[in-house]
Amino acid sequence: MKKITWALVATVVTLVISAGFAQASTKEEVQKRGALQCGVSTGLPGFSIADEKGAWAGIDVDVCKAIAAATLGDATKIKFVPLNAKERFTALQSGEIDALVRGTTWTLTRDSSLGLNFTGVNYYDGQGFMVSKKLGVKSALELNGAAVCIQSGTTTELNLADYFKENNMEYKAVVFDTHDATAAAFDNGRCDVLTSDQSQVYGLRTHLKDPEGAVVLPEVISKEPLGPVVRQGDDAWFNIVKWTLNAMIEAEEYGVTSANVDEMKANSNSPAVRRLLGLEGIGGKGLGLNDDWAYQIIKQVGNYGEIFERNVGAGSPLKIARGLNALWSKGGIMYAPPVR
Amino acid sequence: MSKTSQKQHWWNNAQYRSLFFQVVLVAMLAGFFWFIGTNTLANLDKRGISTGFGFLSLKAGFGILQSLVPYDESYTFGRTFLVGLLNTLLVSGLGIIFATIIGFTVGVARLSNNWLIAKLAGVYVEMFRNIPLLLQIFFWYFAVLRSLPSPRQSWTAGEIAFLNIRGMYLPQPLLGEGFSFVIWTFVLAVVATVFIRRWAKKRQDDTGQQFKMFRVAFALIVGLPLLVFFALGSPLTWDVPKLQGFNFIGGMTIIPELTALLVALSVYTATFIAEAVRSGILAVSNGQTEAASALGLHKSKVLKLVVIPQAMRVIIPQLTSQYLNLVKNSSLATAIGYPDLVAVFAGTTLNQTGQAIEIIAMTMSVYLFISLTISGFMNWYNKKIMLVER
Q1: C or N: which end of chain A has fewer Cβ atoms within 10 Å?
Q2: What are the chain B neighbours of A153 within 8 Å (beta carbons)?
Q3: Distance (Å, whole) CA B82 – CA A219
Q4: Contact B356 A188 (CB under 8 A)
């Protein structure tokens, strides 16, 4: 309550003060500040979670790092702002953060009536269910009458209601503020089912007392394109965040990785790679960045495939298959417009 | 203007002057808020954030764990506001009742001559007063209630009431035909009791004779409706909860979130009320007690008729603050998933609609309204019991 109220006061004050003034662009603000303020989740394995030393890691965190690398040339210059689902939009609207990379589903309402812009998709997801093995449930259609643990203020809440209604089933929604509380309640047996985006379900499962005692059901009941969000009305910043993501996907397509990017820069004669690394073509001019913006992203953070593998894929405890998130050329739908 | 004063310009008159400045101040304040309002709206519009209260009639589409009025996903956001509001009122109302009972008991106990009772009360107050409320809520919810068994291993009382980690399942009364007569008898009995009490008081004032009020009231309020109930052939059946599928179906459910929040709020607020009661009693000069004892009044009567009424003057203002705190603290519900106003409306609804300003404004107004109502009532009560100087 307190946090929301403050964020709200901040929004109101910003809105009042900004009356009549031309707005400073987010890019300039970030560069002047020397640090990107990036909104992430309060703790979700594989996506954004802080370790004991306070170092953040995850696929969302890496997108933040990539934005910082492109804008400031240094992927470490970030202030991470952990937000729960209820706080995230207010934090972005009020200018508390420059970009929101927090498993946020791209929907019509959010894109059109909150003063926000979705810059693309860094993870194609869908809502799934996790139940305790002991229940012996094999399908989500057997969940009539179940108590469902869920995080408040998400599209998940709405999909759940739709799904149970469509299938003439009843449920009890037990709603919590954070991922942690939701998982703890499931762990303690307060509810039979935990529902969230499937990737998050897998992430939360690794933090249960007995991860093997829970199974993820096969049903995926919704489309959840998750991507970075910025404020509406700052097109230059919108472009930077959008193309940061595109550059990472493009780099994977051309086989440019953090390991071989220096060698590629020196030796590659592929025009596409040379354009990506800022050796030919428009470089960073249109974005108002240095020509090596994409080079910095790849060098310091890696391409999309790399961040996927190390955070949620084979190289992580989550072991999620690429699935829809594979490149378009490899059976998935990850597709970036050409950098040229 | 008095006639003796010389002819004066009106602006030299203190009365007009103060009126003038007050009007100016009000105008400036109004202008200030108008400025903020229009500016905010213009900026919201410029940034493409929708405004207005139209969202209240849109379909909500999410489930709520507990509602006192009919609710499901097909109701509107306006309804979610009502559901959240009633849940807040429920937990605050019950909390105030429990906290008052515990608080008065402990406050009096702390002054007891019995060493053990006094010390126990002291330990209770010092312990629960000094632990942050949120921790206490977590304690009751995550530590105490989570140790309850799963639905299949429920604790049961005679196979009609069940207790498990999902809550307490009680039989729900289903009112049969003619039950309304019982209710009406009860209402009439209460009204009659009030009149009898007035009459008894007047008689005692006039003649000094006491009337056995308690017995009569008990007979009227409890006995009479029971009589009617049986005379009508017990028009009441019970819906007993049954284990079916994942959980119990039927009956009434008291969700563990409500229990945890209620226990934490009552136990915590009661410590402050206990201290208020103690200070109130100590504020009554010992001479009063001695004088009352000298009249031969029994100890409990001394407390009831002499000490407590005088102590109330000191207790009431503090009590009011504690009631207000309790209502506001109930918003911590959101931490453990109790669907109160803040969790349901300022939480989920806000996030689904994104109308932060409208929703927070509505939520704040509700708390303001509840607080003003409580303090208004308590002030009225305070005036009523104030010492009348004769």
Answers
A1: C
A2: 347-348, 350-352
A3: 34
A4: no
CB atoms within 10 A of CB A139: 10
How many angstroms separate the CA of residue B265 from the nearest CA in chain A?
A: 17
pLDDT in tens, chain A (340 residues): 455 556 566 666 665 555 444 456 899 999 999 999 999 998 888 999 999 898 999 999 999 999 999 999 999 999 999 998 888 898 998 899 999 999 899 999 899 888 899 999 999 999 999 999 988 889 999 999 899 999 887 888 889 999 999 999 989 899 988 888 899 899 988 899 999 999 889 888 988 998 889 999 989 999 999 999 999 989 999 999 999 999 999 999 999 999 999 999 999 999 999 999 999 988 899 999 999 999 999 999 999 999 999 999 988 988 899 999 999 999 999 999 999 8
CB contact under 8 A, A153 and B62: no
**A176 near A204, Cβ under 8 Å?**
no
Q: Which residues of A are less than 8 Å from B52 in CB distance?
A: none
- Measured in angstroms, the CA of B66 and the nearest CA of chain A are apart by 9
Residue A99: strand pairing partners: A38
Q: What is the dihedral of CA B253, B258, B262, B265, to 10 degrees?
A: 180
Cα–Cα separations (whole angstroms), residue A186 to A180, A191, B294? 10, 5, 64
B246 belongs to a structural domain: no
Least Cα distance to A115 among A240, A9, A229, A241 occurs for A229
Q: How far apart are CA B214 and CA B219, in angstroms?
A: 9
Residue in B331, B332, B343 closest to A152 by CB = B343
Write out the residue range of the structural domain in which residue B343 sits: 77-147+256-385
Which of B40, B46, B343 is closest, CB to CB, to A16? B40
Please report, for chain A, the start and end positions of each structural domain, with discontinuous segments joined by +: 125-224
Which DSSP symbol is given to A337?
A: -
Q: What is the ipTM of this complex?
A: 0.76
3-state secondary structure A263-275: HHHHHCCCHHHHH
Phi and psi at residue A56, in whole multiples of 5°? -90, 145
Residues from chain B contacting residue A174 (CB–CB below 8 Å): 65, 257, 337
Which CATH number do you get for residue B86? 1.10.3720.10
Chain B partners within 8 Å of A90 (Cβ): 356
Phi/psi for A84 (5° steps) reads -90, 175
Residues of A in contact with B73 (CB under 8 A): 161-162, 165
CB contact under 8 A, A157 and B348: yes
Report CB contact under 8 Å: A152, B43. Answer: no
Q: Does B247 fall in a domain?
A: no
Residue B12 in any domain: the answer is no
Could you give the CA distance from residue B342 to residue B221 in angstroms, rounded to a whole number? 38
**Closest residue in A to B245 (Cα–Cα):** A145
Measured between beta carbons, the chain A residues lying within 8 angstroms of B63 are 157, 160-161, 171-173
Do residue B44 and residue A162 have CB atoms under 8 angstroms apart? no
- For residue A92, give the chain B residue with the closest CA: B354
Q: For domain A125-224, which CATH number applies: 3.40.30.10, 3.40.190.10, 3.40.250.10, 2.30.22.10?
A: 3.40.190.10
Our CA-based measurement puts residue A267 at a distance from the nearest CA of chain B, in whole angstroms, of 46
Of B244, B246, B249, the CB nearest to A146: B246
**Inside any domain, residue B368:** yes
pLDDT along chain B (390 residues), means of 10: 61 85 94 90 81 88 89 91 95 96 94 93 95 93 84 81 86 81 88 90 84 84 86 81 79 89 96 95 90 89 87 91 94 90 90 86 94 93 75
Cα nearest neighbour of A135 on chain B:
B246
Shortest distance, CA B217 to any CA of chain A (angstroms): 43
Domain count of the fold of chain B: 1
Q: Which amino acid is at B233?
A: G
